Structure formats: structure tokens, C-alpha cells
């Protein structure tokens, strides 16, 4: 199972992110993802790192 599939299962997301057509829903999903974004050691990333990741998308 991929990391993406694990995340969707953990968050009870029944659909593929790629199927979203509504901009607001996609933004909501991204915000939820970044709010839960953690390093491998379990600590949260710095806000600047998350912002840079979001901008790169």
C-alpha cells in the first residue's frame, strides 16, 4: 500500500485526490494534509517548510 493510500485510509477519505474538480475542496484537502504533515521522527515541520512545499505545488 502506498503512502498516499495509507493517508487516505487513516483520514477516511473514500476518493482519489486526483478526481477532485472543485477548487475549494482541493484547497481544503491540501490544508488538512499540511496540518497533519510531520517529519519521520514525528515532529512537525517548520511553517516556512510547509509554505514552500505548498507554493511548489
Number of strands: 0
What's the helix-strand series?
HHH
**Structural class, from secondary structure content?**
mainly alpha
Beta-strand content bin: under 5%
Count of alpha and pi helical runs:
3
| Main sheet properties | none
Radius of gyration: 12 Å
- N-C termini distance: 23 Å
Overall mean confidence score, pLDDT: 84
State the helicity in percent bands: 40-55%
Q: What shape does the CA trace take? A: globular
Low-confidence stretches: none
Give structural notes.
This protein has a domain at 21-57. The protein is globular, with a radius of gyration of 12 Å. It has helices at 3-10, 23-35, 47-56. It is mainly α and 57 residues long. The model has no long low-confidence stretch (mean pLDDT 84).
Secondary-structure map with pairings?
Elements: H1 3-10, H2 23-35, H3 47-56
Organism: Cetraspora pellucida
Protein name: 6565_t:CDS:1
Task: Summarize this entry quickly.
With 57 residues, the protein is mainly alpha-helical. The chain contains 3 helices and no strands.
Amino acid at each position: 500500500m502506498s503512502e498516499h493510500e495509507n493517508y487516505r485510509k487513516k483520514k477516511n477519505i473514500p476518493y482519489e485526490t486526483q478526481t477532485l474538480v472543485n477548487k475549494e475542496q482541493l484547497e481544503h484537502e491540501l490544508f488538512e494534509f499540511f496540518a497533519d504533515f510531520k517529519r519521520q521522527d514525528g515532529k512537525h515541520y517548520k511553517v516556512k517548510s510547509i509554505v514552500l512545499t505548498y507554493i511548489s505545488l
